[in-house]
Write a structure and sequence with these properties.
The chain is mainly β and about 140 residues long. It contains 1 helix and 7 strands, in the order E-H-E-E-E-E-E-E.
Length: about 140
C-alpha cells in the first residue's frame, strides 16, 4: 500500500470572522420618530442591531429622511398616505449589510415594508432572509 504525501498550506493572513448571529430589532414607537432618533440610534448601536423594524412612525412626505439620520444605518420608509394620521413603517439597515427593498410584496390595505437580506456568511441551505415591517391599524366600525 502506497502512502500519499499531503501538504498543508498555512494561511499567513486571515480575515476576521464575520459575526455569526444576526441581530434584529422591532419597536412600535407610537409617533415622534423625528424626536426619538437619538434614543433609537443609541439602542441600535449599543445592541449591535443589524436590521430594525419600526412601526407607527407617524411620518409623512413633509419630514425629510435627512432629519431621521442614524449614523451607520440606511433608512427605508413607507409613510402613511392620503393625509391620514398615525401609522407608517420604517426599516433601518446597517450600512455594511447587503439589503434591497422588495416593492413587489407591498400591499395597499396594510402598511408594509419588505427587505431581502443576505449576509456574507449565511449557510448554503439559507442563502437569503426576507424581513418585513407590518402595521395593521385597528379596524374601524365602518369596515366591519
Amino acid at each position: 500500500m502506497k502512502l500519499r504525501e499531503y501538504r498543508f498550506v498555512t494561511q499567513v493572513g486571515f480575515k476576521p470572522r464575520v459575526k455569526e448571529r444576526q441581530s434584529y430589532g422591532c419597536a412600535n414607537i407610537r409617533g415622534g420618530f423625528a424626536v426619538k432618533v437619538d434614543e433609537l440610534a443609541t439602542v441600535l448601536q449599543q445592541n449591535n442591531v443589524d436590521i430594525a423594524c419600526i412601526t407607527e412612525t407617524f411620518l409623512n412626505d413633509s419630514v425629510p429622511s435627512e432629519v431621521l439620520h442614524v449614523a451607520g444605518y440606511i433608512i427605508h420608509r413607507n409613510d402613511r398616505k392620503n393625509g391620514r394620521r398615525c401609522g407608517g413603517v420604517a426599516v433601518l439597515v446597517r450600512r455594511d449589510i447587503p439589503c434591497q427593498r422588495l416593492t413587489s410584496f407591498q400591499c395597499t390595505d396594510v402598511e408594509t415594508l419588505w427587505m431581502l437580506y443576505r449576509r456574507p456568511s449565511m449557510p448554503r441551505c439559507l442563502s437569503h432572509v426576507i424581513v418585513g415591517a407590518v402595521y395593521c391599524n385597528q379596524p374601524s366600525a365602518d369596515r366591519l
